[in-house]
Amino acid sequence: MTEVNRGMGVITETDCYLFGQGTHYEIYKKLGAHPMTLDGVSGYYFAVWAPHATAVSVVGDFNDWKTEANPCVAVFEGGIWECFIPGLHAGMLYKFALRSAAGELLFKADPYARSAEFRPGTASKLADEPWEYAWKDDAWMRKRAKQDPRKEALSIYECHLGSWKRGDGNERDGFLSYETLARELSAYVKEMGYTHVELMGIAEYPFDGSWGYQVTGYYAPTSRYGDPKGFQFFVDSMHEAGIGVILDWVPAHFPRDAFGLADFDGQALYEYADTRKGEHPDWGTKIFNYGKTEVENFLIANALYWYEIYHIDGLRVDAVASMLYLDYGRRDGEWLPNRFGGNGNLEAIEFFKHLNSIIRKREDGSIIIAEESTAWPNITKSPEEGGLGFHFKWNMGWMHDFLAYMKEDPLYRSYHHNQMTFGMSYAYSEKFILVLSHDEVVHLKRSMIEKMPGIGEERFQNLKAGYFFMLGHAGKKLLFMGQDFGQYSEWSEARSIDWYLLEEKENRSLHNFMRDLLHLYREYPAFYEADYEYEGFSWVNADDSSRSIYSFIRNRKNHYVIGKSGEKAAGKNNALKETETGEISESKGTGSKGLNRKGHEESLLFVVNMTPVERADYWVGMPKSKEAKLLFTEEGMVTKEKYFPVLKGECDGRDYHIAYPLKGYGIALFSFIEEEEDRVANAKPCPNKKSELKKGENEKKEKKGQGELAAKKHRTA
């Protein structure tokens, strides 16, 4: 019986067992390259999983890349090879040299490398242990652990660091450093009022044009912007500024690069061997073998590595649909059904359940998000409930409907009215994030402002109305960089977004509009607290298609409170009298105290006009209340307090209403406190209408409005 080599004691029998079971969640502390002192001599310890290799060695700039200089020895029986090389230090380059069963010599980057050579180089780079970084974000981490992310504000700024801003040439290839980005990006995001940044392309990748979605160094922050400590400093600084950090994570596929994971030890190791399951025909990439426990371990440990070692607040998992469906991107005959004859990848499903169960059990406020583009059920239900376990899902359906509607000429929007309302019919089926991502402003899709109909200022009016609708809609929010000031050109990873546009009046106006709206979003819990509760959203009028006007109410969770006396709590204001005209009453310090209570317990009323036609006396239904405070309009924040009396008179299926002069492309955000439970809350309302006395007048106004819109279309044609 051949004695098993037990190695140097770094890799233990327990390590091998757990790795083989797919449950060694800190395997990155054993595999890869690590500083070590052996027999009083300092150097680096190397370990790699290569079960099909017949020989393995470490090559690098320290041994002139000679394969015979530093051979590795196989330990135990799990296919792990190890060696120790004295005298090495951080910054040196290395690869593993592997001899395949067919005799081919392969030079591979370390799958567990914590740092990588600056592209176009492809070597791994020795680094200090990243878990030795002295973090300063204890307060942030403690606060995060106490929060339920579903009930918190979540407004995400999606960002590609290499093209957010470019350097002056002092940095490599114009890339700003992690340290510089930490300072400048945190200042911008904080000023704008976003809660989080979502970073594209942080794990190392060779090709700039892949945007970071063809990863070769899953454990290495890209060297484009600096070293691992630099990225830790970046996250630390973001947390100090009160900003969360989400990373794009790509477990769906990996590239074919000869130095990468593909055919790692001469055979399919990380990928499925059968190309019908192991390759994406459209993308030209390899697919991870989710049924192989060591591969599952590699990915799950990698996800946890970013949470644990880099203190990130969330992962957004790319291309989830491509993992779930065996026939994704394939024609009949090009894919293998599962054991039940279906098209679901059962191994990927179990992988997600395993991964997300672990992340959920952390209970530290961190999140994981699915970019899933189909109607696969229960993406955000827990695995115990039969779901995949993600905290949130990108709402791709809402995004496509929203963009399709916003591109329409206002003259024809009445025929597409339901594209903006349809999203609420399934809004509670998952925990959704509404997204306007990078994918929508590339590949000839045009930038957000260029999608808008009209010319000049009208485009900006359209976009403001659209963003206002989005921020009010149920669900968390995401915008891609440049969208908040009206970037004209499509995004390119090769250049900075056009910051000079902030010198232009219209772009600066949009920028200020979004800044104020995002701060309001964080200030008023009704925007976000009950995103996934039926009580959190109710249409006032979802059916005003002839005028292309939308109105709805957002409430806090458990917004309707019974006071200690048994009476229903509400703001009181005896200084305002209900008037027949509904004229604006300006506060003199005697306004409703309830509207300014600490914590903003008010509900919010949203009204948005998607046409250039003015509605001088627009009625909108309301729950019973004394008054509604105007917070925000198409001009931005209302700085001088203005109140509108809530008048008795049926409108939109409610017994009360306010009258408001709604401008073309006009918006209005009101805060109010209910005096009694709204009898039609969350019910489908009837069409907006005024009293019978004004019916004839309304009909005339409708005809006039349509005529104005048609005339405007004729003039601009």
Description of the molecule:
The protein has 717 residues and is an alpha/beta fold. Among the domains are: 13-132, Immunoglobulins (Immunoglobulin-like, Sandwich); 534-691, Golgi alpha-mannosidase II (Immunoglobulin-like), CATH 2.60.40. The strands form seven sheets. Strands 9-10-13-16-17-18-19-20 form an eight-stranded parallel barrel. A seven-stranded antiparallel β-sheet has the order 21-22-24-30-26-27-23. Strands 1-2-5-4 form a four-stranded antiparallel β-sheet, with no helix packed on it. Helix 7 (293-310) packs parallel to helix 9. Mean pLDDT is 90; it is low at 561-598, 681-701 and 710-717.
What's the topology here?
Layout: H1 13-21, E1 32-38, E2 41-49, E3 55-60, E4 73-75, E5 80-86, E6 93-99, E7 105-108, E8 124-125, H2 138-145, E9 155-160, H3 161-164, H4 178-192, E10 196-200, E11 203-204, E12 217-221, H5 228-240, E13 244-249, H6 275-278, E14 279-280, E15 285-286, H7 293-310, E16 314-317, H8 320-324, H9 346-362, E17 367-370, E18 392-394, H10 396-407, H11 418-421, E19 432-436, H12 448-451, H13 457-472, E20 476-480, H14 505-523, E21 537-541, E22 549-554, E23 585-586, E24 603-609, E25 615-622, E26 627-633, E27 636-645, E28 647-651, E29 654-662, E30 667-672, H15 695-716
Parallel strand pairs: 9-10, 9-20, 10-13, 13-16, 16-17, 17-18, 18-19, 19-20
Antiparallel strand pairs: 1-2, 2-5, 3-6, 4-5, 6-7, 6-8, 11-12, 14-15, 21-22, 22-24, 23-27, 24-30, 25-29, 26-27, 26-30, 28-29
